[in-house]
Design a protein that fits this description.
The protein folds into two domains: 145 residues, Alpha-Beta Complex (Aspartate Aminotransferase, domain 1), CATH 3.90.1150.10; 239 residues, Type I PLP-dependent aspartate aminotransferase-like (Major domain) (Aspartate Aminotransferase, domain 2, 3-Layer(aba) Sandwich). 41% of the residues lie in helices and 12% in strands. It is built from 14 helices and twelve strands. GO terms for molecular function: pyridoxal phosphate binding; transaminase activity. InterPro entries: Aminotransferase_I/II_large, AspAT/PAT-like, NHTrfase_class1_PyrdxlP-BS, PyrdxlP-dep_Trfase, PyrdxlP-dep_Trfase_major, PyrdxlP-dep_Trfase_small.
Length: 403
């Protein structure tokens, strides 16, 4: 038998590990080994899931119906509740048949692109991007096309930039507001301009709205198909319970879109995973039919931490951090620190600088290379206030030695 063939398929071998999860895993491993590491890696609220949601799951465990297979596309009552919640929270009126319940937001991302893309189709990806987006696009046979925005524009791309990236092969625009990793929030006029541009050129839009309830100050969330309703028939909306209800481990997301695309994605899911765990779906049902008091409490804490982390980062010589308006991430530029000597090392990239900070200050950060823009860090401020202050203080003390 020939031994020349690769053991792992080229398609799968080309996928990069999730950098955010890798950093989080390393930080947790070091903690377990007794090191006082503070991790800013994972986008995970430090709050427990609200008790009423947990109790709904406990009750569901005792329901024999939930011990069996249920429809691959989601419990009918949950799909109906998601449709109602979507209209309640964003003003977007959809039918339950347009909803596909997925195993977390990541499965919704992959299935959206898998349902839309043929090999060679291009997807315009505003950059910095969440690490999973380009990998899902490539896995579906598509080609991600980066459109980079930096700190001078608050990490928001313009229609002119998008148009410059459009080709005859462009099929999809990815649009994310509030943004992971930057916390950028587009205002209504910007969303309308981008949506009308996409509609004019017959593009599909995949819009991730998972941070819809985490906006601060004067910023407001607006759903693209509500602002530009003529685009609704070519829009897929992604969302989930992870961030709003502190349910990252429950693994419930969803995809909303035109019936034909949702049915195609549901067919894929029927072969890939079948139904989402029924106990998790019961918990999600309690979440989306309940009020938003839990997220209101979290948002107050995140807002406080947001202001603290931005102030502390901008006090560090060589660090520039725009104020994020949404989600729970700060995305500072550290380009001015690269190439400077710190404790006998001279990091030339943000990857090297992050490694130095982990070694010397025992603080775990995700470098900008993971998000398509070297020279930056992403710091999640979804951790306790004391850890946040201590972690950034350690970083500030170390970087003050840069020469």
């Amino acid at each position: 038998m020939s031994t020349d063939r690769p053991r792992v398929s080229r398609r799968i071998a080309a996928i990069s590990e999730s950098a955010t999860l890798a950093v989080d895993a390393k930080a947790k491993a070091l903690k377990a080994a007794g090191r006082p590491v503070i991790g800013f890696g994972a986008g995970e609220p430090d709050f427990p899931t609200p008790e009423y949601i947990v109790e709904a799951a406990v009750t569901a465990c005792r329901v024999p119906r939930f011990h069996k297979y249920t429809p691959a596309g989601g419990l009918p009552e949950l799909k109906a509740a998601i449709a109602e919640k979507t209209e309640r929270d964003s003003g977007y009126a959809v039918d339950a048949s347009q909803v596909l319940v997925t195993n977390g937001g990541k499965q919704a991302v992959y299935e959206a692109f898998a349902a839309l893309l043929d090999p060679g189709d291009e997807v315009i990806v505003p950059t910095p991007y969440w690490t999973t987006y380009p990998e899902s696009i490539r896995l579906a046979g598509g080609v991600p096309v980066d459109v980079v925005a930096d700190e001078t524009t608050g990490y928001r791309v313009t229609v002119e930039q998008l148009e410059a990236a459009r080709t005859e092969r462009t099929k999809v625009l990815l649009f994310v507001s509030p943004s992971n990793p930057t916390g950028a929030v587009y205002d209504r006029d910007q969303i309308e301009a981008i949506g009308r541009w996409a509609d004019e050129h017959g593009l599909w839009v995949v819009t991730d709205e998972i941070y819809e309830h985490l906006v601060y100050g004067d910023a407001e969330f607006h759903s693209l198909p509500v602002v530009v309703p003529e685009l609704a028939d070519r829009t897929l909306v992604l969302n989930g319970v992870a961030k709003t209800y502190a349910m990252t481990g429950w693994r419930v997301g969803w995809l909303i879109g035109p019936n034909d695309v949702v049915k195609a994605a549901a067919n894929l899911q029927s072969h890939a995973t079948s139904n989402v765990a029924n106990v998790s779906q019961a918990a999600a049902l309690a979440a989306v039919t309940g009020d938003l008091s839990a997220v209101a409490e979290m948002r107050t804490a995140f807002d406080r931490r947001r202001r603290t982390i931005v102030r502390m980062l901008n006090d560090i010589d060589g660090v520039v951090c725009p104020e994020p308006e949404g989600a729970f991430y700060a995305y500072p530029s550290v380009k001015a620190l690269l190439g400077r000597e710190i404790r006998g090392r001279r990091p030339e990239t943000s990857v090297e600088l992050a490694a130095l900070i982990l070694d010397e200050a025992e603080v775990a950060l995700v470098p900008g290379e993971a998000f398509g823009t070297p020279g930056y860090f992403r710091l999640s401020y979804a951790l306790g206030d004391d850890d946040l202050v201590e972690g950034v203080s350690r970083v500030a003390k170390l970087l003050a030695e840069a020469r």
